[in-house]
Amino acid sequence: MNIYNDPLIYIKGPPVFHLPPREKVDIQMEEQVIEKEQEPVRVQDESTSIYELRTSMNDKTLAIFEKLKFLAKPFQRKVYRPLVFHFEDGSLLQGEVEKVEDGRVTFFVGAGELMTYPVEQVERIIWRGVEMK
Prior knowledge:
Elements: H1 21-38, H2 49-55, H3 59-71, H4 74-79, E1 83-87, E2 92-101, E3 104-110, E4 113-118, E5 122-127, E6 130-131
Antiparallel strand pairs: 1-2, 1-5, 2-3, 3-4, 5-6
């Protein structure tokens, strides 16, 4: 053995064999053909409620709706604090997003108090003094 054949690192595991590029392509294509032949035909039902909701909102409201859905997840609720929500009428609300459904958003305002507003009324979301993009 010489310096060029010595392994650089030893890893305990099964042996790995490298195939030339042409053989790799042939094997991958064979696997795809086999998978397609074995795949059963599935019938999927589509829900139209999401599509109706999204078509009724303009682009700005849809972007805020997506942000609110993101902020309603448990991890994001803990990370994105404090949040300040600005509404169309000029009012402000500081809190967390509890849930978003059917075009309405529920905010957790502290001490177990929940407030629900239509998504269309939320104008912008501020986190640490900067508007969320």
